[in-house]
C-alpha cells in the first residue's frame, strides 16, 4: 500500500515541500485575518457614527410649549409671533442661534436661521449664563419673530399673516431634527394679543 522510499535525499525533499506549502497557508490565513479584523473595526466605527447621527436626528429637537402672536388692528395682520420652546426628552444641548425656521403659508415660503436674522430674537428666561443654548429639559426659551413692523420695516420679514390665514412653522435644530407647528389666525380678531 505504501511505497517505501529508500533514497534519503528524496525523503527530505518531500518534507521541505510540505513545509513550504504549510508556511504559505499560514501566511495567507494571517493576511486574510488581518484584513477581516481591519474591515470589522472600520465597519464598527462607521456603524457607531451612523447610530449617533440617527439618534440625534430623532431626539435632538425642540418641543413647542406655547405659541402666541400680536395682531396689529390698524394693519389688519399679525405683527409678530412668539414661541416658547424647550428641549424634547432625551435631547442633547440645542443651540438656538443655529436653529433654522421655515414658514409656509398663504404668503409663500420664508426660511432663515434664527441667529442670522435681526427679526428673530431669543430670550432664555430660565438660564443664568445668558447663552442661547438649551442645556436642560427644565429650561424654556422664547423665540420672537417679527413679521411686520409699522415703524421700521428694515427689521421685519415682510410676511403677511391676516385673519383666517394658516401658517406652518418648522423649527430645525442643528442636528437636523425638526418640529412643526400649525398656526391658525382666528377669522375675527378682537384683541391685540392672540393665542394661536
Provide the fold topology.
Blueprint: H1 8-59, E1 62-72, E2 77-87, E3 94-95, E4 100-105, E5 108-113, E6 120-124, E7 133-134, E8 141-146, E9 166-172, E10 178-184, E11 193-195
Antiparallel strand pairs: 1-2, 1-11, 2-8, 3-7, 4-5, 4-9, 6-8, 9-10
Subcellular location: Archaeal flagellum
Function: Flagellin is the subunit protein which polymerizes to form the filaments of archaeal flagella.
GO cellular component, one term: archaeal-type flagellum
Quickly list its features.
five-stranded antiparallel sheet; Immunoglobulin-like; alpha+beta; 1 helix; 196 residues
Give the amount of beta strand, in percent.
25-35%
Order of helices and strands: HEEEEEEEEEEE
- Alpha-carbon distance between the termini? 98 Å
Which residues sit in consecutive blocks of at least 5 with pLDDT less than 50?
none
The shape is: rod-shaped
* H/I helix tally: 1
Q: How many structural domains can be distinguished in the coordinates?
A: 2
Amino acid at each position: 500500500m505504501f511505497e517505501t522510499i529508500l533514497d534519503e535525499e528524496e525523503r527530505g525533499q518531500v518534507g521541505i515541500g510540505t513545509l513550504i506549502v504549510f508556511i504559505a497557508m499560514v501566511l495567507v490565513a494571517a493576511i486574510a485575518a488581518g484584513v477581516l479584523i481591519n474591515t470589522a473595526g472600520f465597519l464598527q466605527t462607521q456603524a457607531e457614527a451612523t447610530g449617533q447621527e440617527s439618534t440625534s436626528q430623532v431626539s435632538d429637537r425642540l418641543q413647542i410649549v406655547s405659541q402666541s402672536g400680536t395682531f396689529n388692528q390698524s394693519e389688519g395682520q399679525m405683527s409678530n409671533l412668539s414661541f416658547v420652546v424647550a428641549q424634547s426628552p432625551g435631547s442633547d444641548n440645542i443651540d438656538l442661534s443655529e436653529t433654522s425656521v421655515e414658514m409656509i403659508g398663504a404668503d409663500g415660503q420664508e426660511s432663515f436661521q434664527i441667529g442670522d436674522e435681526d427679526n428673530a430674537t431669543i430670550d432664555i428666561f430660565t438660564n443664568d449664563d445668558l447663552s442661547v443654548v438649551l442645556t436642560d429639559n427644565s429650561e424654556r426659551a422664547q423665540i420672537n419673530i417679527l413679521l411686520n413692523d409699522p415703524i421700521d420695516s428694515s427689521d421685519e420679514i415682510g410676511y403677511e399673516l391676516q385673519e383666517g390665514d394658516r401658517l406652518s412653522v418648522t423649527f430645525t435644530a442643528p442636528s437636523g431634527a425638526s418640529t412643526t407647528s400649525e398656526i391658525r389666525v382666528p377669522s375675527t380678531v378682537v384683541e391685540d394679543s392672540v393665542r394661536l
